[in-house]
Task: structure prediction
Amino acid sequence: MEKSQFHAGTYIQEYQYKSFHPTSLDNAAVSWHDLGLDLLLEEATRLLGELSAYSILVPDVDFFIRMHTYKEATASSAIEGTRTQFDEALLPEEEVEPERRDDWVEVQNYSRAMNYAIEALGRLPLSMRLLNETHRILMSGVRGQNRGPGEIRRSQNWIGGATIKDAFFVPPSAERVPDLLSDLEKFWHNEGSDIPHLIKIGLTHYQFETIHPYLDGNGRIGRLLITLYLMDKKLLRKPVLYVSDFFERNRASYYDALTLVRTQNDIGHWLKFFLVGIEQTARSSQNIFESIILLRRESDRKVVQMGKRARKAHDLLTWLYSHPIISAKSIAQTLNVSSQSANALARAFEDVGIFREMTGYKRNRLFIFQDYVDIFSSRGTRGQK
Result:
């Protein structure tokens, strides 16, 4: 895409500083003559379609989606400085170290906000109304809870710098934000547009982060918006693609690509970076499903050999796909069995290598389905291509 074909916006003199006012996307001239961008768009679209189809074919896929949301929650929150690790996010609150509990709660809020938004998308259009309610859930009871949860900002914010005078970037002034968001909503739902959806959501993410409509939580909502848009436009049938892990692993490049749009009108560089993220994430997500199928086959074989315990063992195994860290007490409650039976079943799962005891204690023990958790973490993915 030639830089001259896209004008990102204008710096406007405010009191003692300049804010950046982005160009309306719904009226922007967006066209390109870039074979590299075309090829990336083709490949990303193909892989996204494969992933969407795959997610429908995988049995009991909804069990695994909870893990996808936790993976996204930890990666997206990590970009904002939250230190909760993926397996730590799966712990019950009472098992989290007190000094790390604030970060843990932020990740839980993100997961709750995602689940709300995905469910609400079935009855509400993609809109700022939906995002505002999602933002309210995200920011409730955590750092930033006093910075207008669920509300569009009414004051100036900025990125980087000790004060607004030495800020790295100053978004548009608060009085301009409502019109910019209204324009963005029109852009999402403009059926007469001939811009491919993956280009539209790439432009949308850039624009949303540039508007920075909230006093806090803009990055997390802006990244969640990617998945919501893809689902709203039926490019995804299930919420199984989240790009935050790619952004977190390439954090400097992510910020640089967004900055180049504002400073040099280089939307092409950002869109290429974004499409590479979609491509790599779609491929990784499909590999995760393939790994789950292999592990599920192995685990089913193990529980079938547990004799009279096999039926309850199968019920427990199914539960573990959405709750892979569990105590004997929770096993008893989940399966409606005695404490003695729950402990015996936990020992049987340890013996066949499904469980690993993770506390080292003799009492109040916690068990983790380690091979399954590892599929979603950076420690390894079976069947990785």
In short: DSSP finds 15 helices and five strands in the chain. The CA atoms of residues 206 and 258 lie 6 Å apart. Residues 379-385 have pLDDT under 50 and may be disordered.
